[in-house]
Every structure is written in C-alpha cells, then in structure tokens.
Amino acid sequence: MTDPFVVVGGDAAGLSAASKLKRDDPDREVIVFEKGRWVSYAHCGTPYFVKGDIEHLSDLLALSPEEIEERGIDLRREHEVVAVSPDERTVTVRTADGDAVEQAYGDLLVATGAHAATSPIEGAALDGVFTLHGLDSAAAIRAFLDAPDAASVEAVGGGEYVDRETVARYGAMDPPETVALVGGGYVGIEMAEAFAAHDLDVHLFQRSAHVLQPFGEAVAERVEEHLREQGVTLHLDTEVDRLAGDDGRVTGVSFGDGPLDVDMVLVGIGIRPNTDLLAGTGVELGDSGAIATDEYGRTNVEGVYAAGDVAEDRHVVTGGPAWVPLGLTANRAGRAIGGTVAGDPTPVGDVAGTAVLKAFDLECGRTGVVDHEEAREAGFDPVSETITAGSRSGYYPGAAETTVTLTADRDSGKLLGGTIVGSDRAAIRIDTVATALAGELTVSEVERLDLAYAPPFSPVWDPVLTAAKVLGGKL
Amino acid sequence: MTDPFVVVGGDAAGLSAASKLKRDDPDREVIVFEKGRWVSYAHCGTPYFVKGDIEHLSDLLALSPEEIEERGIDLRREHEVVAVSPDERTVTVRTADGDAVEQAYGDLLVATGAHAATSPIEGAALDGVFTLHGLDSAAAIRAFLDAPDAASVEAVGGGEYVDRETVARYGAMDPPETVALVGGGYVGIEMAEAFAAHDLDVHLFQRSAHVLQPFGEAVAERVEEHLREQGVTLHLDTEVDRLAGDDGRVTGVSFGDGPLDVDMVLVGIGIRPNTDLLAGTGVELGDSGAIATDEYGRTNVEGVYAAGDVAEDRHVVTGGPAWVPLGLTANRAGRAIGGTVAGDPTPVGDVAGTAVLKAFDLECGRTGVVDHEEAREAGFDPVSETITAGSRSGYYPGAAETTVTLTADRDSGKLLGGTIVGSDRAAIRIDTVATALAGELTVSEVERLDLAYAPPFSPVWDPVLTAAKVLGGKL
To answer: Which residues form a coiled coil (chains A, B) (predicted)?
Structure first.
C-alpha cells in the first residue's frame, strides 16, 4: 500500500490539496499536520473582523475541523512537523504533549505559510505591539480596541481555538487612543480603515516616498490623498527605528523627526516564508527565499511539493519564478497538487500578481509587471501611460473618476501589467487586464476588446480601453 | 486634390470616423450628412432619461454641433443622403428645403444606423404607441409621463433640436396609468424599470418562453423573478397581434388570452439596419440584412465603408459575420475606419457580442456564443454549466448570489461564451469572459486565471473561476 499523502500546514493550500486528493482518490490516506489550533481560516478577512464589519472570529473559518474530518482527511492540530527526511520519506512530528513521532509519506506537501516580519524594528516584543498574521493576533487587537466591559473571549467569538489568555489580558487594558501603523502595504492600509472605524488617531509610517509600492505611483497618490481626507496622518519617507516602551508596554515611536507618543503599534512590513523546516533537506529555495517549484508545484526533491505562501510560482509575464503569497494562488496550487498526487497531473497555473485592496472608499487593483525596473530585468523595454476616465457614462449618476495605468513592452507591443484605482467598481476591472496577460494580448488587441458597455456600469470606452488607446498611441 | 471623406449619419460610428480622420489628416475635407437634427447622442441613456435619473435630454449629447465643427468637420444636419453612385463616386443629398444636390466623395462611410421595428404588430401608428429609438421618442414619452402642468418642451431640455410639436402634444395629455411593453429584450426590460419609477402599472409581453433571449435561460429566470418582485406583470409565451384604438389613440392590447386595457404601449421587438439607401448600388448585405464588411470595415465596393448599427462585423468566436448593433462596436469601428482612410490601415476589431443590462437591482451580462444551436451551426460541440456563487467572501457584508453560465466546445475545450447575473458588481465581471474569448483561452486556462481576490470585492474563487472549474470537470 502507498504511504499517506502528508500535508504540513492546515490552511488554504494544504487543505485544498488534501480535499482534492480525497475527492479524486478516496482510498488514499491523507494526514494534515497543523502546528496551531486554527485551520482553514480566511486571513484576508481579519482587518474587517478588527474593524467590526465581521462580528465573530469563527465567521472567518472556511471549514471546521469536523467538516475537514468528514472529508476523510486525518487532521492533526497542535502537531508541528519539525524535520523532513526525504531519503527515508518520513517527517518528524512533535505533538501537543511534546512527544516526537515519525510519520512515513508517499507524497509530501509543504504548505507551512509565512510569518509577519518585525525585524529590524526594535521593541516589537512590547505589549501593545502587534502584527496581523493569524486569528489570534486579530482577536487580541479587537479585545484591546473594545472597552474593557465589552471585551471578552466570548465577544470575539473564537470558541475553543482562540488564545484565551492573550485575549483576556488585552481585553482588560484601557483601549488605545493613538496607533502607529508601521508600513504602508496591504496590512497598513486595510488596518488604517479598521482603526479609524474605532475612532483612533491613526498615524501611518512608510519608509519610501509612497504607500502601496506594488501598485505604482498613480494608485499611491490617490490613496494617500484619500487617507488624509479620512483623517489618517501620513509619515512618508520616514523610517521607524525603534518602538519605545515603559514597564513592558509600548509608549512611542522613534523616527527621524522625533518621537510620537502612541499606545498601540501595528507592524506590517511584510511577510517571510516559513522554510526553516527544510534546512538541510536539499529542497531548493528560490531567490525570493521561498521554495522553488515547477509547473506542477514539485520541488527539486522527489515526492516533495510546496504550495501557498511558502512557495514560488511561475510568473505569467516574465516566465520566471515569482513569490506572490496571496489567497487564490494558495488555493489554486493546493487543488492542483491534490489532483496531481491523485494521478491527474495538473499545472498549478501561472501567477500574474493580481491583487486588489479596499482603502476606505477607494478600490485599488494591480496585476502583472508594473515597475519599470522589474520589467527591464525581465528583458522588456517598458512604457506606461496613466489615464483618468469615468466609471460610467458621464451623464449617469454615480460615475466616479477611475485612474488606470497600463504598461507594455515597446518592441513587441505586449501588455505587461496594469493598475487601477477609483471608488466605483474599480477593483474588479483589473480582471480584464489579468485575463489579457494570460492571453498574451498586445496593447492594440486590448484596445479592440469587446468589453461591456451600459450607462449604469461603464462608459462606451471602459477605462481600461481608454488607457490602451492612449498607450497604443505611444508605441 | 482628393475628394472629401463623406460620412452618412452623424452619430457614434460616423462622428468617430470623422473625428479620427481630422485628427490624423487635418487637411482632408470631411463632410457628415445627418438627415435629422440630433447628432452624437447617447441612445443607451434614453431609458434613464425617461426614468428621470437624467434630467435633460441634452445631457445625452456627447458632442454639440459646435464642438463637431470645431474639430474641422463639415457637419450638415437635416441633409438626407438619398442615393449613392459608386461608379461616379457621388452621393445625392436632399437638403432641408427639398433641393437635391450631388456631392463627390473620395471615401464614403455608410453609418446610417438602424430603426426600431414595429411590424407585424397592427396599430403601431396610434397615439400613445412608441418605440424607443432616438431622442425625439424619448422626449415624447417623458412629456407624456409627466403631469400636464409639469410637462413642457423646456422641462425635457432638448433645446432647438427636439420635436417641439410632438412633445407639446403629449405633454398636454393626461399621463398614462397602464403601459404594455411589447418585447422582453433590452428596451423592454430597461423601460419596465423606467415606467415603474413613474408608478405605472407595467405589463411586459414576450412572445417566447423567456425574456432576454440572448442572455440564456439562467439569466432570464432570475430577471423574470426579479421583475415580478418589482410589480411587473409578465405575459410570457404571449404574442401581441394587435393594438386596439379609439379616436386615434391606443386603448388596449390584443393577445391570445384576451384584451388588456392600456393607455400606453412601447414596442421593443428589435431593430433593423437602415440599408434602403444602398439598393441597386451593388453594396452587398450579409445574411443578417446588415452590410457585409471586411476586417477594415470595407464593403465589397471600392471606397465604400460601413460601420455601426447598419454593418456586420466578424465574430471573435465563430470567425463568421455577426450583426451586433451596440455602442462600443459603432464607436470603435468608426474610429478605426477614420484611421484607415487617413492612411493607417486599422482593423475594426472583432465583436464578441458583449452586452450588459440593468434590470432594476439586477445586473446582467453576456458575451460570445451562448446558444447551443448557434454554437453547433458554427461547427462546435457545445457544453454549458451554470453555477451560483457569492460576489464577495461569504463572511463579508453585501455578498450577493451571482449566477454564471459558461459554454465551451467539448472537443477543443475552447471557451465559447458566457452569461452572468447578480446584484453586486455582476455585470462588469463579464469582461473577464470577453477578454478570455479574445485570447482564445480554453476552459482550463480560464480556471487558472489569476483574478482579483479581496473579501469586499470577490470570494477567493471569483464566480467566473468557479464556473470554469465546474465546466472543466465536465469536459
């Protein structure tokens, strides 16, 4: 009998793979080891839980442990895989009570995810300093924000899984009044909205000149203007060196222009793949630090797959490896690997780096290669154009200014990527650009796309078409 | 010196062509003959003018005659082209005062548009019976709906262009209480919303079993349910034979189950291309009855182009001719022909038949080949799947059921078309499918598209991806 399909990590990639394999090959044994208590949760929903749009932490669970077991998956929570021996095809697992056991595998999927970075910021261990990675940190933040009489383990709704001690500790503290967000990426922007909803005085620190670096300047400038309109204080071009504390609790932020008194800090300066487990196994990492994989999600080691936030994928535009730790990528790669392990080789699919983001009332989107330096490194001669057009016919109520940037290769005319920002149905329009990248369309082909037009939804020339027309004129 | 570029018809296609030519070749003379008084108006906005979302008729004008003249275009309104002589390269024009003059052309664009059909319904000439084609009919309808003291030529805002006599006549009548919409296509559905906003008792008659035939059954069924919720009485599978009248004014609708008393009727049973002008010229029509054109919008006759609602285009999926009289197609083809005439041969672009529609609170979209009979005629072996999925993450407020149907060719796996319906950002999602058609993607390529995901805008698997997954499982 074949040894089990062993999955390390019980979230999007791991459980998608396990579920798909059990569907296609019900007789194969599947074991999922998860070091924590939470499984199958929607990380992307945590800012909206903190904000209060989502009431209970458990609303963010896609599948309960019971539902996972019903699929025939042998789920073992609080089981940490601490070593992999590819030669013996075994993993070493530490259980909740500290025992170490060996488990043989036929195929292994490493889906260990990523963790939030805090280095090199000093003082990140102080009380009142958070990252946003995992439901426990979201629960602690919300308990901290709620008034002590309203905050409770029951109110956050995490049931048996939540880190009750931390929630109770933050729930007992006086709610913060001033928060510093360190980092103007996804987490910083989404959490600015969440904290503003709790009437905090919100300060956002960004080391470089603009927030949302992967979205380019045109998006960043509109978002920055909008953040200021919403009362967020922006500290651009400002590096935070150190978080100051008193009696173990954060009291301030140190940066060039001097300190700012705060009683809460959220550090969102990026995430790093959880690859420690693979040290010495011979499994190769890519330049990004994440695990290198082929088009089927296979690593260089026989029988070992990797997917999700810990793995690289192939970029649809450059053809080279790319590390894009996002939700769809994880789900899709996991599902494909489940199919492949079941005997139906299924490509995990290329990534375009498509991402969308809500910034208060603005919707932002990006896909493909937008940055000119990145484009040149991939061998292209990039040229971009930015336009602003209405989201609907000008005479129809609700039309809003939508800014689109498209980037193309001058020689081939091939579309390389794009960004969008606006308040009316803007984000979802990036899918047109993402699909055009998958179809390897040129700018003039994009210009001639037969896109939707009706006054309530779009002008005759969709903003993406207008951008293609203008960019086409430059090629 | 080259003879002028002569354009017959002063709306989307004609003026796009004229404007593009003057931009690219300012020295070339361009004459646009328009038989009516209105030019460059947004036909698609008329239901929302009738509804009251748009206040003035003149809000629907994209360009004023003055702005057109400023572009260097010689615009002649109330000039009807009554004959074309391709051998002499001349057109015969009847002016407002009845004179007939000859005009030589170097290149000719026929952009005469289409007219609303009423045949074979008897009684369509009665007072109180309308079609919705052109601003004058929209003005008359709104004047009729408004109370006599509120209705006036000034209130509809058409200025000097509007048919003042008709507006004044309808404005003086008592407003209607019951309206019959004959035909459940775009016009019927959009106008049901417009009439309901004026508190009319709205009856919609559809000859076949479902409204919105080009959108397929899955869309039709949700729209029908929603129309009923909004108080519209549907008469499906019901053919209207005759409109009854008294003293020249409509009083009822005759159909199988007996008559219905109404005081207003809107006939929206389709449009026909305005090709009479070309009888005997040797310009060939296609099977649809519209003018056959090549990829540059050229007819079979040297120097004669056709674009807009009067012309066929090439279908992106079938590769064969298609008559898709819609706004973007007209603008795009006109612009391309302007470029071609200016010396830069520019393809008009294929059509996918992409269309979107607002039906009260529902958004509908369609693109490509959806109908199985049509697919088989084009040589495909069609297979479809319909799914319903959330428009956002399930835990995020505002998620709405979105129904997607995708159709593919069984042999090649190639995507052929799709439809969508839902109340939250549904319509614009059809652009993903339209772009996939242009890229000639297979269903499994669509399944692996890297589309946007963030809880406020989309679930992890966009409804289009979910539909592709399910359809892929059937191939």
So the answer is: none
